Amino acid sequence: MDIKQLLQHVIDSKASDLHLIAGIPPAIRVDGVLSPVPGEGILTPEATASLLKEFMTAEQLKLFAEEKELDFSLSFSDKGRFRVNAYTQKSTWAAAFRLIPLEIPTIEGLGLPKILHAFTPLKQGLVLVTGPTGHGKSSTLAAMINEINMTRSAHILTIEDPIEFVFRPYKSIISQREAKTDTISWPIALRSALREDPDVVLVGEMRDLETISSAITVAETGHLVFATLHTNSAAQTIDRIVDVFPETQQAQVKLQLSNVIEAVFSQRLIPALPKGRQVAYEVMLGTTAIKTAIREGKTHQIGSIIETSQDAGMTTLERCLASLVKAGRITTESAQEWALRPEEVLRLIRTP
Asked: Which of 92, 111, 126, 332 is an S-S bond match for 219, by CB 3.0 to 4.6 Å?
């Protein structure tokens, strides 16, 4: 197959990812499981490089040669978009393609909880979506951003690397900026954001001290900021943000974060019954108790606060997993595998 046929196979197979690596056949991921593309042989280094060169521009090839890795987006006719990471391994070219649906999903369509609807009318603050790579964070953010687009008049500014979902303005106006293409760097784009009159700012990922600091500042100045982090729980998310800063600044950061945090939504995609994947999640809301724990550096209390705040809309990952087992949507084994506290999942499953 040429690259177009491989990308079409991804769409036809309802796969999420395509991997091109020299030494193995092309591989796709369906419902979280990797398997070789049927009928395809082992890729040689020359064949892999040839496939990638088919869609990379001269500028991208130059940048890739200099940096040995490159993130960009690829439109595939009218059938889909792909987020691409080209990289080198064992001195040969390789790439991972993530399929981005053309139709922006809804909160209900993704099987997400109704509590996410409460985040879209907010006028200011920081909403974080966290979880492992490949577990739907970008889709969740897109669903919330598009709900704002469909329901209120606002200027939505996104800063992404690369642009994934392409939003069409409805009630809102939308500016989508891509790293390296539309801005020199993420921190510069975030600093510039305050001069672009946004109401809502989407930060693709809070990667480093400068980006995290800028995102908190944008939220502090009366804007609604959505961002992602690769963390596994709300408590870990708060610790990760604080620990990025020098010790001398951490007390101030805890105060700032306690003032702006509105929610942390941590999600996983779990193998579902009989097939497919099921979203499981933890919800932390920026209640007075949560804000106090953050400000005082008592993040070890966050889990307990979430457990005792179901009435406010919060839930632990373990409680969500147990409810999915009881509903027959996932197996007990899957729930334990993905839980942060497997023994707690078993206790909740056994509780009437």
From this structure: 126
pLDDT digits (tens, 9 = 90+) for 186-221: 778 888 898 999 999 999 888 889 999 999 999 999
- Please give the tally of structural domains in the chain: 2
The verdict on 247 and 287 lying in the same domain is yes
**End-to-end CA, the chain:** 53
**Which residue's structure tokens are 């990812």?**
17
Same domain assignment for residues 137 and 230: yes
338 burial level (CB within 10 Å; 0-12, 13-18, 19+): buried
Pairing of strands 261-271, 277-285: antiparallel
The 3-class SS string of the chain reads CCHHHHHHHHHHCCCCEEEEECCCCCEEEECCEEEECCCCCCCCHHHHHHHHHCCCCHHHHHHHHHHCEEEEEEEECCCEEEEEEEEEECCEEEEEEEEECCCCCCCCCCCCCHHHHHCCCCCCEEEEEECCCCCCHHHHHHHHHHHHHHHCCCEEEEEECCCCCCCCCCCCEEEEEEECCCECCHHHHHHHHCCCCCCEEEECCCCCHHHHHHHHHHHHCCCEEEEEECCCCHHHHHHHHHHCCCHHHHHHHHHHHHHHEEEEEEEEEEECCCCCEEEEEEEEECCHHHHHHHHCCCHHHHHHHHHCCHHHCCECHHHHHHHHHHCCCCCHHHHHHHCCCHHHHHHHHHCC
Task: Note down the domain range covering 73.
Answer: 3-100
Look at residue 164 and tell me if it is in a domain: yes
pTM of the model: 0.89
Token pair 């596994």 in the structure block, residue? 232
Give the distance, in angstroms, between the CA of residue 114 and the centroid of all CA atoms in the same chain: 19
The CATH number of residue 88's host domain is 3.30.450.90
For residue range 241-281, list pLDDT tens digits in order: 999 999 999 999 999 999 999 999 999 999 999 989 999 99
75 φ/ψ angles, rounded to the nearest 5 degrees: -85, 130
Specify if 342 maps to a domain.
no
The residue type found at 336 is Q
- The token pair that represents 191 in the structure block: 């600093």
